[in-house]
């Protein structure tokens, strides 16, 4: 973590600073590029595997484990993010980033070398812990390197990197599978990870002060139990496990007990892993409320639009992913734009106010599409979905980072990712349940030979005689339309949540110095100052 020395003197070359307390501009630029690369590696780790799943299953077998290849990474990154954020606050971003890169690469190597599906899933769990740590700590580094206004532009850039990886990951994964094999979707990150480790080791500075910290192990374990149970309930409920099944009831009981235990533990902890006082900060609550709802709309759209294109519009699977580029183009362009607007105006509240309305309107339009809707119109709707999502990602991070006490920047930044991923898990589960209900109502009656909704496949639909196929395709469209309507409602609620954001001027574009000799202030007073 980069901090000014007490006398302002120049530090060692690895952390060379100017008189303002910030590192040399060249060092800062190199560090930001490396941080962006680190974020790209971690976010690509989630998306790159999607196009390789059929090849992995045909090679390793274990079809029953296929969903866990994705869920394991999502689960591990969700529970690892807040803990890594807290460790970054306590011990500095540098060492946490170093460990995060190492864990990510080790997990990737295990997954790439796996000879059975359980070993692959184990590697994905390890990789997910590293990936979740890298995402949140990389974004927190920005707050250490830059003053608030410059920080806004950088967060817009990093949100754009996240969007690029979402599109590029499946494309790169498909190319590697077709050329050198699925193992290389995990091995390809190793040289880039080593390069990022080397550069960050030379450019990031460790904390000047050496303070003893007391890690909140009980709070960390309870938070892991809570997030794990919530993600598993959302991912498995209604699909792999029936809602009334014993394992699902056990997961619900674990979630309830973990909530109670976590609150009690955090009240007593000397250095809580997720301070409860943060929930008294208006912007922390409002921004994360937006994150949950946008996560639902974003991940739900990404999950089900390819199915709509393939089944309803007859687009080949390889091409269906290309249409998602329109969505990511809108996300990336508006994320960059939002960062620049915040930098030049010093204001941010109006951005999510407007963008969530655009998102709700775009999803409302998607809920009306059907077999006769031209592809250009669907592509345009997807572009505006991205336009609606883009500003919320960078604004959410900036709103939290400018509101929480500086010593909690890491855990505050981690909360944004944690709530967005949790919203995505819950949203995808809800959307899946609605879709399955729609299939049972609109499609299954047309196919009496099909006993279960899960047995309806795209291959089955393609083999139907034309008249019946047209009816089934319309049934698929009718089953998918409510999903986008629910997404529009979630976006409208996100708009209401964004209205609760408190406008905090980002101040001039000048460095923020931190006096390391400053006397400690009680947590309650620091929160009151942040409010």
Textual characterization of the structure:
This protein is mainly alpha-helical. The protein has three domains: 17-207, MFS general substrate transporter like domains (Growth Hormone, Chain: A, Up-down Bundle); 217-272; 275-507 and 521-531, Growth Hormone, Chain: A (Up-down Bundle). 73% of the residues lie in helices and 0% in strands. The longest helix is centred in the last third of the chain and has 34 residues, at 409-442. It is globular. The two termini are 25 Å apart. Mean pLDDT is 75; it is low at 1-22 and 508-531. Residues 31-506 form the Major facilitator superfamily (MFS) profile domain.
Briefly summarize what is shown.
With 531 residues, the protein is mainly α. The protein is 73% helix and 0% strand.
User: Using DSSP, what is the number of strands?
Assistant: 0
Global mean pLDDT: 75
Radius of gyration: 23 Å
Q: Under the CATH scheme, which architecture of the largest domain would be assigned?
A: Up-down Bundle
CATH fold field value of the largest domain: Growth Hormone, Chain: A
Q: Which spans have pLDDT < 50 for at least 5 consecutive residues?
A: 1-22, 508-531
CATH homologous superfamily of the largest domain - what is it? MFS general substrate transporter like domains
Profile the largest sheet.
none
What overall geometry do the principal axes of the alpha carbons give? Answer: globular
State the oligomer.
single chain
